Amino acid sequence: MYAEYTLYEWVGVRPELAYSGEIKQAVLQSLREELEGQVDETMGIIISVIDADVEGDGVLLPNDPQIYFPVRYRVLSFEPLLQEVDKGIVSDAREFGAFVSLGPTDGFVHRTQLMDEDADFIQETRSFKGRESGRVVGVNDIVRVRITQVSKASRRMAAVRIGLTMRQPYLGKEEWYAEKQQVAGGGEGGEAS
Description:
By secondary structure, this protein is mostly beta strands. The protein has helices spanning 15-18, 23-35, 174-184, and strands at residues 2-13, 39-40, 44-54, 59-60, 67-78, 85-94, 97-101, 106-110, 119-122, 127-130, 136-138, 142-151, 161-165, 172-173. The protein is elongated, with a radius of gyration of 23 Å.
């Protein structure tokens, strides 16, 4: 889930940025360099610092070259939630499963969670093929997934690990659930009895 947070804190700015003439831009640059791409325990993955307002004069601290300004700023973050359904792109496939890019991070689908049947890994095309249906899912396919497990970031672990499934109805490749709807509705040109 994407979320926007408003924060208020003292932000340190390098002297060469602070004396460039535009304090707001210097603060924004400092915040973006420090925060974007970082994982926060409470907010998730910080994607972008949207805006910042300097709310007072800068102060100097002893033995610190930075100038600190009181700043109210907004960030956009991504925090994966259990049972959330997302759309992503298969970025890699290995014998043990597939990695799905969800935008700011990747999730992992174990090979047993790819479809409602056993699937064989095809090394040459980096894809999986269902043994009964013949359905194929591989690198660069767009898929719908459900988040089943989230290992939150912590001081010890700097990344978020996300477990995914594609086994439930209307998950997986779009054409898979289009096929299900067609079969349930009698298909095109089917006669009503």
